[in-house]
Amino acid sequence: MTFVRACALSDLAPESALSVEIGDEDVAVVHSGGEYFAVRDECSHASIPLSEGDVGNCEIECYLHGSRFDLRSGEALGLPATEPVPVFPVKVDGDDLLVDVDA
Known about the structure:
Elements: E1 4-8, E2 16-22, E3 25-32, E4 35-40, E5 54-56, E6 59-61, E7 68-70, E8 90-93, E9 96-99
Antiparallel strand pairs: 1-9, 2-3, 3-4, 5-6, 6-7, 8-9
């Protein structure tokens, strides 16, 4: 696994998301339910950044059409999206959040 620094933990308020670029991948790093997650920063229904949507209960919602995704599995939880979004492994290293987009 190749973990890369995505952001400082202090950059992510509870129940929020932040868009970061890691290599060629746009990633939404998310703090929800006291945990940290990383998913591709693009709704599987439309090319909309998920990082601009609402976060809560380990889910992220696309602001345009309301599709929701489970941050643990990437599973689509609400229409119109039916396809999951890719999720990436994360780990905390001191004050930093690291993400592996190659996993």
